[in-house]
Amino acid sequence: MVPERYASVTYALFRIVFGFIFLVFGLQKFGLLQGQAANLASLQGAAGVIEAAAGLLIMIGLFTKPAAFIASGEMAVAFFYIHVSTIGMGGKGLALPHALIPQWNNGVDAALFSVAFLYICTRGAGILSIDGAMGGGRSRR
After folding, report:
1. Within a domain: residue 107?
2. What angle do CA 32, 87, 41 make, to 5 degrees?
3. Which is nearest to 12 in space by CA: 137, 106, 102, 101?
């Protein structure tokens, strides 16, 4: 078990890693990092813009709470609209409640990102962040 005195460092690592991975997901939608470029005027293109921008902001800890709130909402929409409705119920022909199971609708990433960013939104940037350096990102223990 990690001692409580390392909680702020562990949280900073959590925020930075989740922000970085989200940034990479966004960059892939621009055709970078072995991704397939999406049309910016499409739903996937808009998602790429949100993921790249929010991922970068969360990773560096700038405007962390609003960026995490938007990212959490985007991933909730992605989970319910794309994974549950389109993939689960449409493509795989699953009925509710089975279509809600992330492993069955390929929505594990979206579900985890949504909850992780909701947590970051409630906690703030914490240490090792621009918000924290400016005095606006202090996190609670």
Report:
1. yes
2. 45
3. 137
